[in-house]
Amino acid sequence: MQNKYSFWGLINQFHVVIPLLQRDYAQGRIDEKINTLRDQFVNTLIDALIQKHRCELDFIYGTVQNTILEPLDGQQRLTTLFLLHLYLALHANQIHANAHHFKKLSYETRLSSKYFIIALIENLPKLKTKLNDEKISVLIKDQTWFFSIWLNDPTIQSMLTMLDTIQKALERKQVESAQLIQLWQYLISNETPLQFSFIDLENFSLTDELYIKMNARGVQLTEFENFKAWFQQELSKVPNVHTDKVRNFLLNVDISYTDFLWKLRPKNTISIDHLFMTVIKCIALSRYILSDNALSPDQDTSANLISRLSNNDYLPISSYGKYIVDPEQLNSLQQGYSDLDKLFEFLIRTQREYSTLWENFQPILTDLWGSFSIKESDKGLSYLKLSRFAILCALARLYHDEPIIDGELMEGIFSSSLILVNNAKGYFNNEKEYIYVIKGIEQWVRFAYSTSIVKFNLDSKNPKHQPLLQAFSVETIQHEIIKAQKIQVDPTWKDLIRFVEKHSYFYGQIEFLLDISGDDQVKFKKNGLKASILFSDKILQDSTHILSRTLLSYSQYAPYLIKDGHNLSFCQSKHSNARDRNENWRRVFKDPSKLVILQHLIDKDLSDINEKTSLEEQTQQIIQEMENVIKRNLDSIHDWRKLFINIPKILDFSKFKQIRKETEDYYVLKGYDYRSVAWPLHLYALLIDLKEKKMHLCDFKKLEMIYWTEPQNSSVNMPAIHIQDDENIQIIIQYQQNEFQFSFYKEGILLRDFDLLPYEMREKLAQVHKSIEELTTINI
User: Which pairs count as long-range contacts for 359-366, CB under 8 Å and 24+ apart, including other chains?
Assistant: First the structure.
């Protein structure tokens, strides 16, 4: 037996008894994830009532004997619906009149739960007048009929929390008393939007196997099992549906697709239902975005749907039917299972026949659900991961439509698609940019096949190309075309290009290497090996900033530093995403006046890499050769660059590797803002030099950078080196008008005569002056 019911309709027909072996009511438990799910669920129920739109609450499974209904799965939803009815009945003064109906729900799990529900129904009406001033749970616990021992019952605790949640949700939506009465009347009417399907497992032969499994587990159905049951049931109701295809599809889900996912599951995972559901939601996302709904006028619905799917939140089955797979439309329903079928068939065949291509696919899948393990199921999935998965969906659809497509062409389309996604124009900052990428990648896959990448003529004025241009830069698209053209002319380019593309910093964008190598494959390979080491984490994160110092040492060129607003940046080493790369070293790669410095280093000053040596040996070779370049170039440098080259620790101060040019000096910035903490370059260089050389200064009480306020002019704070000894003599060193300036204080009083300083202090200052003499030979 399967019928549609509302909660009120169900208890009109049956006594609902939660059996002894069921678990406690848990939707009101206090837990970060459950709190979020509870709020979402209650808001969904109330919004459906207020807005009068259908809210399908999936399946309730159970058994019926005479008029007693024992739910096997659905206890949690039924209890929440009971509490919602009770709360609205309270405001409508309808609890006493309907007490007989309310008492038709009973908990047999614990006697305390059973008696609490009875007491609640009988006594709750007395609290109506006090609700405006207090949480309903507090009022209930304060009543004489409420036994304190009941607080030890998890079901009662959860019920009280759920009542508070319902109260808070209605108050937040500013539902007035008159509207609460209307909601109650609507809730118990035949038109109520809150409905579910009840399946009597004793009489529903299709689910006998499921019934045995559920009894054995003693837990509720997973989200995937619910979805599969709904999907199968809806398919069976469609006239003229291809029964054999549906049967084969469902058989594949249970056997071959399950086996495929089982072998790819994360370590220590004992169930793959959440993996199946992740794939279904990702396909649903792709289908929804490629429809005309994703950027429709109903932005709130679209944003909510995309957000919930991308976060892997629970989505009511009704949403799949309403927004993604419409059960009333045969084509939509068939397309729904067809997309899943296409994807798994494509992946399984790729794994079996195209091992090289599969090696590229597998990380996308494992990354998709590897970060979505059972323990981390509340983390959601990033737009970047979802977009990479969308490439596989697009390729699966293409493969289904064009089964003769060969692995080589598929590999080329995949590689270019992945680079486009990884370097998407908007960095996935928001949902709209993610939508653009999904639409853009679908178009790219089709264009890349139909015209082949090498013949694709990108036209910014062509309306058909707009989805591509909204998602990806012209430069990135053109670069993929150029690489494909090289590979077509000479296939030996392929392995050379793919090797460098995979570098963690280049992230597929290697146009600078093609620019400095031309059509010379030997030169490209040599340059690629050198560049791969130069931009490895080992060198980018080197404590002596070896790469920056080497590039600065070429005095015949303007400094390689990139402009960042009013600041100059040495380029940060971070590369966790495309934005990090684009805003740092990629700006050097793309600027011919800066790329020429890098080319000089790679072409002329670095030896060829011996591929037979270890990576560690290759890296040490590059580092040693860069040190030699610095030594060779140092004598020709006479400006501020020499300070950074000789004293690399200066750069450690700046979190974002930023400096700014002011009239009297360059300033080293702690952050981005010059107005926060910023030290004059010469002054800060002197401080580090003094600390590193020690020069008998170690017995000073203080040796530090400060903002100094002159006693006679308290309104001015100037950067200064502050030195203080045990006799409270202070030395203030400032850098103004291209020179170091000293002032001396004893107990706050300015000493105008240097000879008044103690002898030891004067000896130490002589050492300071030696460092200053070295620094003053360096120009701004």
Answer: 360/411, 360/414, 360/415, 360/418, 361/392, 361/414, 362/264, 364/388, 364/389, 364/391, 364/392, 365/264, 365/389, 365/392, 366/264, 366/266
Per the structure, the complete domain to which residue 625 belongs is given by 522-637
SS3 content of the chain, % helix, strand, coil (to 5): 60, 10, 30
In a domain, residue 668? The reply is: no
Q: Residues 568, 660: contact at Cβ < 8 Å?
A: yes
Q: Which residues are registered as beta bridge partners of 352?
A: none
| 16 Cβ contact list (under 8 Å, min separation 6) | 10, 69, 71, 78, 104, 105, 106
**CB neighbour list of residue 517: distance below 8 Å, 6 or more residues apart:** 523, 524, 527, 528
Tokens of 333: 């329903």
pLDDT at 318: 63
- DSSP per residue, 618-684: HHHHHHHHHHHHHHHHGGG--STHHHHHH-GGGGGG-TT-EEEE-SS-EEEESSS-TTSSEEEHHHH
Q: What is the pLDDT of residues 369-422, one digit of tens each?
A: 765 443 444 444 688 999 999 999 999 999 888 876 688 889 999 999 999 999
Residues in the chain: 780
Residue with tokens 């919004």: 47
What is the number of alpha carbons within 13 Å of residue 727 lying toward its C-beta? 10
Among 160, 183, 217, identify where a domain stops: 217
233 and 213 part of one domain: no
Residues 67 and 122 in one domain: yes
The amino acid that residue 683 corresponds to is L
CA–CA dist 663, 643 (Å, integer): 18
pTM score: 0.70
Q: Which amino acid, 454?
A: V
Q: How many CB atoms lie within 10 A of CB 450?
A: 11
